[in-house]
Design brief:
- The complex is a heterodimer of chains A (504) and B (351).
- Chain A is mostly helical.
- Chain A has one domain.
- Chain A contains 25 helices and two strands.
- Chain A has a two-stranded antiparallel ribbon.
- In chain A, strand 1 and strand 2 form a beta hairpin.
- The longest helix of chain A has 31 residues.
- Chain B is an alpha/beta fold and 351 residues long.
- Helix content of chain B is 50%, strand content 19%.
- Chain B contains 14 helices and twelve strands.
- In chain B, the strands form two sheets. Chain B has a six-stranded mixed sheet, with helices on both faces.
- In chain B, strand 1, helix 2 and strand 2 form a beta-alpha-beta unit.
- Chain B is globular and about 75 Å long.
- The chains are: A mainly alpha (504), B alpha/beta (351).
- The interface between A and B is large, with 43 and 48 residues.
Chain lengths: 504, 351
């Protein structure tokens, strides 16, 4: 299963001939990614008859292109109207939306597209070269190690809380408490469901996302005539290509940032069950921790937008590694791809590299070609998409509320979810008006249940022995990393204060 | 002609008229009912599924409905309601589903009936019935090809030395009970780790996090390149070399365990049978015909599901299965509700 560049080059040339499949899939993925409640997984399920009827190579290329572009699509509404299309884009509005408010929507979209494409391309090549080793990651990162990885993401609450410790922590714990709602992991005992059957499976993410971000934002902006700030109105440029080019250049200048945050995504993507939401929060948190200007995060900082976007596209490449090498689907989309491939009598695993190496490498070349074609097809759209920010709020707010409520409904077909989104909207509105950070609540809602699952699993395996948390070498290294990670911002701040005092 | 006569006549006429009207009504309604049966189904059929889209239940349901829709001349609208081990879908169906034969449920009888042992649903269990079983899927113990434990004897021997963790889809599952019963019979100690679904259960064993796993055998057939199947909880291994000729538990260990199988089946509100027996007949007859067709068998083979596990059964077979699995659940009640674990903890604390 050694990497053979000649096969890869030959395949790249062959795959690019499927542009007629890839380009429609890119646009379809972009649309479904941007609609809250839709995802690549449920779109592939809907198009399953088509994916099965097509020859295996074309079907595979179609699914991969859809998967990659849907990830990118989720960032568009997150930046323009503060609605993350999926949980994987939940960290994108932290800096993307303030940029849009400042009249830099076009630039923000260009940054998001460029960092997504670069992150996707880099991790695709890395995954291809390091596939056998990357596949081994899944054998070392088990429940205990995943608890620490989750804590890396959750520690973002502490970072957010840095501005107002008490409010940040209250918001974070409130989110974690909401995350505990639902039937318990082992004996299915309902907790905090208030008798609502619809909450047995936990608080659904899409209505929570929609409520906390979109609806609360719509309620806030209705006070004003535009989502743009005063400065933003003056700065808004929606006519030329300048901001797009500027966005691309700003991202290219920060190429190293794209590289390392996308690698975080790649590693997290390789772990079965972990997903883009974890990757984007961890990448954002890491980006802020090691930044020279952490105070700019959350105010429309370019690096704060690059980190989640490049990392969640890194997850896309990572998810395919265990699927191709071990036949283990890392996520829902990969699992559906596996169903289609099994239908065509394709068995994943090392044998595939011996029996049909072209098909084994195809997902990665398809991914590379998709990202390559996205360079020409997607960034130009930033100019036109950014016009959304100049729509008056009297039109925008009702459209956002109506559109997102439908999004809340479609993910599970429960009317209850629409009410839930409204409730989260009110919670988000009150939180914003009183200075509590909605992102801190959301981190708790998203990562809390995952942390609980891994924790209970580890405790069940050790039969209640808490020392299991420190039982693995890799886990202990990660614990030390986490402690360093928490200490670094304090140390940096201390140094900055000392420098300031010296200068004074 | 006295007034009384007129009154009597009127009364008689009235009574006769009433009887005649009722009789006509009954006859008429029978005809209408017949007409309804002839017209049934008059709209698309909605199916509540207690698991997520894209899983095994989804596949098995579509294999049937893709052909059934051509027979009934209506489409099927699946509604996926995963959560709380299937409880959400059942509660949704029982509270919102119509009882005219146009709404039904497709579930996995084994884990879902066991679920009621953990906690009773809000509706009486007699309010719904399984009316058509599609398959019977025995539970199997499997290991990763990388695992040190490569035979069932290795696993039992290891379980006698230490508590061996194993992956299972959920606690209330025939496969989990099978492994616990094996432990009881051999003196080995096993600890079930619920992974929440077949995919996670396979992944936990494939990545080496857990020593072995237990799942329905049907889904493991396509995975046999990654896993070795070691022991089957059935009377007979009908899958043969598709699951590495795994021996049956009773043959291997001389136990007398009942078959611990999962069984996917269509369920419907009991009131439908009372109100529309003719519609139930239409549903049962057409389903039986569909599952017997060559087209269905071809579709099963194409979907890589084992043909050997198809086991059509009517309401009587379903009721028998549900009764048996509920009895097994009652036997293992303390284990399912966690009472035995709590008792062990208390004992440990005391000592």
């Amino acid at each position: 299963m050694e990497f053979n560049p000649s096969i890869f080059i030959e395949l790249f040339a062959e795959t690019i001939q499927y542009w007629w499949v890839i380009i429609p899939a890119i646009f379809l993925g972009l649309i479904v990614g941007a609609i809250p409640g839709f995802s690549a997984a449920n779109t592939i399920i809907m198009l399953l008859p088509l994916a099965i009827v097509l020859p295996v190579e074309i079907g595979f290329v179609f699914m991969i292109a859809l998967y990659c572009s849907s990830r990118m699509g989720a960032g568009i509404p997150a930046i323009l109207v503060n609605i993350p299309g999926t949980a994987g884009a939940a960290a994108t509005p932290l800096d993307g939306y303030p940029m849009a408010q400042q009249g830099r929507g076009q630039q923000a979209l260009a940054i998001s597209f460029t960092s997504s494409v670069l992150g996707g391309l880099i991790t695709t090549v890395l995954a291809l070269v390091a596939m056998p080793w990357l596949a081994e990651v899944a054998f070392y990162l088990h429940s205990v190690e995943m608890i620490v990885v989750m804590l890396f993401g959750i520690s973002l609450i502490a970072t957010i809380a840095a501005r107002d410790t008490l409010k940040g922590l209250v918001a974070g714990f409130f989110g974690l408490m909401i995350g505990c709602i639902g039937a318990d992991y082992v004996y299915e005992t309902p907790r905090g469901t208030m008798g609502f059957l619809e909450l047995y499976d936990g608080v659904p993410l899409i209505p929570a996302l929609i409520g906390l971000f979109a609806i609360s934002e719509a309620m806030i902006v209705i006070d004003r005539d535009s989502i743009l700030t005063k400065r933003g109105k003056e700065a808004v440029v929606t006519g030329g290509w300048g901001p797009t080019i500027e966005g691309v250049m700003e991202t290219l200048k920060r190429w190293w940032h794209v590289v390392w945050t996308s690698i975080i995504g790649l590693f997290i993507g390789v772990i079965p069950g972990a997903g883009a939401a974890i990757a984007s929060f961890v990448a954002y948190q890491q980006s802020k921790t090691y930044s020279k200007t952490p105070e700019l995060y959350g105010t429309g900082h370019i690096e704060g937008l690059i980190a989640p976007e490049s990392s969640n596209n890194g997850v896309t490449s990572g998810t395919l590694v265990p699927l191709i090498i071990l036949g283990i689907p890392g996520g829902a989309t990969a699992a559906i791809m596996l169903v289609v491939l099994q239908y065509h009598n394709v068995t994943m695993g090392t044998e595939l590299f011996l029996n049909n190496p072209k098909l084994a490498y195809l997902p990665f070349t398809a991914m590379a070609v998709t990202y390559f074609l996205m360079i020409f097809t997607i960034p130009p759209l930033a100019r036109y998409m950014s016009h959304v920010t100049v729509v008056r709020t009297v039109y925008m707010a009702p459209i956002v509320i109506a559109f997102t409520l439908v999004g809340a409904f479609v993910s599970r077909d429960f009317v209850f979810d629409m009410y839930l989104a409204l409730i989260f909207g009110v919670i988000g509105y009150v939180a914003r008006k009183t200075g509590y950070h909605v992102a801190a609540i959301l981190i708790g809602v998203i990562l809390g249940p995952l942390l609980e699952t891994y924790f209970i699993r580890a405790m069940k395996m050790s039969q209640g022995d808490i020392t299991v948390l420190f039982s693995s070498m890799l886990g202990n290294i990660l614990w030390v990393g986490l402690l360093i990670n928490l200490a670094v911002p304090i140390w940096f701040e201390y140094r900055r204060d000392r420098k300031k005092k010296k200068a004074a | 002609m006295s007034d009384d006569y007129l009154l009597e006549l009127n009364r008689r006429r009235f009574l006769m008229g009433t009887v005649a009207t009722i009789a006509a009504g009954i006859l008429g309604s029978q005809r209408i009912a017949d007409a309804y049966a002839a017209d049934f189904p008059s709209r698309n059929i909605k199916i509540y599924v207690p698991t997520a889209q894209g899983g095994g239940a989804d596949r098995n349901m579509r294999l049937v409905t893709d052909l059934w829709k051509d027979v009934l001349k209506v489409n099927f609208e699946p509604s996926f309601n995963p959560g709380a081990a299937g409880r959400v879908a059942y509660e949704q169906y029982m509270s919102k589903g119509a009882d005219d034969g146009h709404d039904m449920l497709f579930g996995n009888m084994g884990p879902e009936v066991l679920n009621w042992v953990l906690k009773k649903p809000t509706f009486p269990l007699s309010a719904y019935e399984y009316f058509f079983r599609v398959d019977e899927d025995p539970s199997v113990i499997y290991v990763s090809k990388r695992s040190k434990l490569q035979t069932i004897d290795d696993i039992v021997a290891e379980g006698k030395k230490r508590t061996v963790n194993f992956a299972t889809s959920r606690i209330a599952h025939p496969a989990t009970i099978g492994v616990m019963a094996l432990g009881k019979a051999t003196g080995a100690k096993f600890n079930p780790i619920p992974m929440g679904g077949g995919r996670n259960t396979r992944n936990a064993v494939a990545t080496g996090e857990l020593d072995f796993g237990a799942l329905p055998a049907g889904g493991m057939v396509v995975q046999r390149k990654n896993f070795n199947m070691l022991l089957l909880f059935a009377d007979k291994n009908v899958l043969g070399d598709k699951i590495n000729n795994a021996p049956t538990v009773n043959a291997k260990f001389g136990t007398k365990l009942p078959p611990l199988v999962s069984a996917r089946a269509f369920a419907i509100k009991s009131s439908v049978r009372q109100k529309y027996p003719d519609r139930m007949k239409v549903l049962e007859d057409t389903l039986r015909k569909v599952v017997a067709t060559e087209a269905y068998k071809k579709a099963v083979v194409k979907a890589k599901a084992p043909l050997e596990l198809i086991s059509p059964g009517g309401p009587a077979e379903c009721a028998e299965y549900a009764k048996n699995i509920a009895a097994i659940g009652e036997e293992y009640r303390d284990f399912l509700v966690g009472a035995d674990a709590a008792a062990k903890k208390k004992k440990k604390k005391k000592s």
